[in-house]
Amino acid sequence: MKHWIQRIFYATISMTMIFMSPGLSAHGFEVGDISIKHPYSTPSMAGGKNGVVYIKSIKNAGNVLDQLLSATTQVADRVEIHEMKMDGDVMKMRSLTGIDIPVGGEVSIAKGNPNGYHLMLMGLKKPLKEGDKFPVGLTFKKAGQVEVEVWVQTPADANKPEEHKH
Ligand SMILES: [Cu+2]
Question: Which of 6, 18, 91, 157 has the fewest CB atoms within 10 Å distance of its CB?
Answer without folding.
Answer: 157
